[in-house]
């Protein structure tokens, strides 16, 4: 996390991360040296080693910071957005993911996410993203376990399926040049979620973790896929 850090430290780390993303468009991670990173960032090697032990430490922490910033922006308290009020929560917050915010955030950092998710063969960033989502879904399940719907499928399989679906959707959206707006992507996911959500019951499934915002939860969307494409 970058909170409470000296602004100069934040600027240095930001410059190094920007340099890394730029270099990852041209080289595999294993072919990116500390010298290339510092030269691209216009920072001395001495300054680099004041912040990081080595290249591996830098890349690991850079990925962590990128994911911290992303999840700080998209995770919200979903206690009031669940199918019912559950007394057993006893005032505890229930973290859920705002889909429209997530798509909008990724759109605003499209180059970075495209590089990290679609151009690196080692899949380091995707692996960390999957782990973060998996952990959040496990916490969501543990907190709401008393009212979680039993579909006779092991929880770890359900989570793996959901994580793969959402990360895969993001990767596809990026690889196709984000031809659909974040708003349309969110409404499309809402329609697909509606196919598997229970109707008229107070049970919870993993689809409840992904929030589609009030603006998408009212009247059915009438926008056609053709008009949702960017001009």
From TrEMBL:
The record, for Pfam families, names: TetR_C_8, TetR_N
Going by the UniProt record, its keywords in alphabetical order are: DNA-binding
Q: Which residues form a coiled coil?
A: none
Q: Which GO-annotated molecular functions does the record name? A: DNA binding
Span of domain HTH tetR-type? 10-70
Specify the superkingdom.
Bacteria
Q: Which sections of the sequence are annotated for DNA binding?
A: 33-52
Q: Which residues form the signal peptide?
A: none
Put simply, this protein is called TetR family transcriptional regulator
